[in-house]
């Protein structure tokens, strides 16, 4: 195990009340002595965070699947975070004079807008600090006026803007798009390329407020491949899940934090950028499973069933609710621009799912789940109010 990360972990874990409580009766000599844990196990409460030495920031983290958590970054730690993000943007071609539109959400104790602002400043870019909470018409006007070569934001928001422009015959050319926070499907990427003439769609980085920056994408990497910030981050793959230790934060440290993502280190991959940083690939969320009416369903299975039903939507979202009449679990599949949708489509999707899902195959008597298909636009998908993100799964059962 890397001695540098072990030294950091042993010297700094007691700065956090959560880690102190978790390891109060355990002798620790290195990273390997720490148990992989989730943020819920160790993140500090508001009272402790207010007692950390300033200047600094308290940011809200999570909220997609539950109540938000809170983390602390000192001013120096936030500077390091911005420098790491700037390394990624520079590797994508952002430099002095590059006009960049920052469309991440500002406010709400959310870190992304501020971190990107600092990173782009470090790159020498000319910024359009628009913010994703701005009215779509105003965003479209700003983009039309200033013609940025680089736009950064949530994929769902970018698609909404692109479709708004298409409906009103607003012609935009945006060469590069940088995204984070949501998955970009091949169809969404294709649509953005067609509507905006985009030549590159890149990841703004693999990161979270919890863990800070973990990986960056240079202009030669595609899909979900990222370089690791090897100088600051130790990445372990434990039972398929990415587990990170970061030296960025000392006051509110991250030691063997479970990411919730399945990752794979590409050991023999040699990137054209010649970086010595490890390359890893993001495969999927570990929690891409829904338990509904006693049946375990994976997102991939629903995606296959939709495809076999030949609906071919641009995008989809899964929403689980309690049926208001019966109280039974109800699965709504929100479809953006399906090729055709009839009154029989829901039955067809359910039929195809019963051929794929092992619980339905083994226990067909459990097939009482209620499936509803809804044709909607991307603006009709359910968002997380604080962040504006569109999660793949929204579980609204109380």
Describe the structure.
With 398 residues, the protein is α/β, with parallel strands linked by helices. The protein has 12 helices and 20 strands. The strands form 5 sheets. A 7-stranded antiparallel beta sheet has the order 8-9-10-14-13-12-11, covered by helices on one side. Strand 1 (56-61) and strand 2 (69-74) form a beta hairpin. The chain is globular. It starts with a helix and ends with a strand.
Shape: globular
Structural class: alpha/beta
Count helical runs: 12
Neighbour order of strands in the largest sheet: 8-9-10-14-13-12-11
The counted number of beta strands is: 20
**What share of residues are in beta strands?**
25-35%
Topology summary:
Blueprint: H1 3-12, H2 17-22, H3 39-42, H4 46-50, E1 56-61, E2 69-74, H5 75-91, E3 99-102, H6 112-123, E4 126-128, H7 136-146, E5 150-153, H8 155-167, E6 176-179, H9 186-196, E7 200-203, E8 206-208, E9 212-216, E10 225-228, E11 233-238, E12 241-246, E13 254-265, E14 279-285, E15 289-292, E16 295-298, H10 299-308, E17 315-322, E18 329-336, H11 345-356, H12 358-362, E19 370-376, E20 393-395
Parallel strand pairs: 3-4, 3-5, 5-6, 6-7, 17-20, 18-19
Antiparallel strand pairs: 1-2, 8-9, 9-10, 10-14, 11-12, 12-13, 13-14, 15-16, 17-18
Helix pairs in contact: 5-6, 7-8, 8-9, 10-11
Notable characteristics:
single chain; 398 residues; seven-stranded antiparallel sheet; five-stranded parallel sheet; 27% strand; globular
């Amino acid at each position: 195990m890397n001695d540098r990360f072990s030294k950091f972990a042993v010297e700094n874990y007691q700065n956090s009340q959560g880690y102190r409580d978790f390891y109060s009766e355990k002798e620790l000599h290195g990273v390997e002595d720490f148990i992989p844990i989730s943020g819920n196990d160790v993140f500090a409460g508001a009272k402790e965070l207010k007692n950390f030495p300033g200047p600094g920031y308290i940011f809200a983290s999570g909220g997609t699947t539950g109540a938000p958590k809170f983390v602390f970054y000192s001013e120096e730690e936030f500077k390091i975070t911005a420098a790491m993000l700037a390394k990624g943007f520079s590797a994508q071609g952002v430099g002095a004079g590059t006009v960049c539109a920052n469309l991440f959400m500002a406010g709400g104790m959310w870190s992304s807008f501020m971190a990107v602002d600092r990173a782009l400043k470090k790159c020498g870019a000319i910024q359009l600090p628009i913010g994703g909470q701005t009215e779509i018409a105003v965003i479209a006007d700003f983009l039309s006026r200033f013609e940025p070569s680089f736009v950064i934001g949530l994929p769902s928001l970018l698609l909404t803007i692109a479709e708004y422009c298409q409906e009103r015959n607003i012609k935009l050319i945006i060469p590069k798009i940088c995204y984070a926070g949501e998955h970009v499907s091949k169809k969404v990427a294709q649509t953005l390329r067609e509507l905006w003439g985009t030549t590159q769609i890149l990841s703004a980085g693999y990161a979270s407020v919890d863990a800070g920056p973990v990986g960056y994408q240079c202009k030669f990497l595609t899909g979900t491949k990222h370089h690791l910030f090897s100088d600051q981050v130790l990445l372990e793959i434990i039972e398929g899940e990415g587990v990170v230790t970061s030296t960025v934060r000392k006051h509110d440290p991250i030691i063997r934090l479970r990411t919730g993502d399945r990752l794979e280190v590409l050991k023999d991959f040699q990137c054209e950028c010649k970086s010595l940083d490890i390359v890893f690939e993001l495969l999927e969320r570990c929690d891409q499973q829904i338990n509904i009416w006693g049946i375990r369903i994976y997102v991939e299975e629903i995606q296959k069933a939709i495809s076999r039903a030949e609906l071919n939507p641009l995008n989809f979202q899964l929403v689980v609710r309690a049926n208001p009449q019966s109280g039974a679990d109800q699965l709504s599949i929100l479809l953006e621009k399906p090729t055709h949708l009839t009154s029989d489509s829901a039955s067809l999707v359910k039929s195809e799912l019963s051929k794929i899902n092992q619980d339905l195959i083994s226990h067909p008597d459990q097939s009482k789940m209620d499936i509803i298909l809804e044709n909607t636009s991307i603006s009709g998908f359910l968002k997380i109010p604080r962040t504006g993100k569109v999660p793949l799964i929204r579980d609204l059962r109380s």
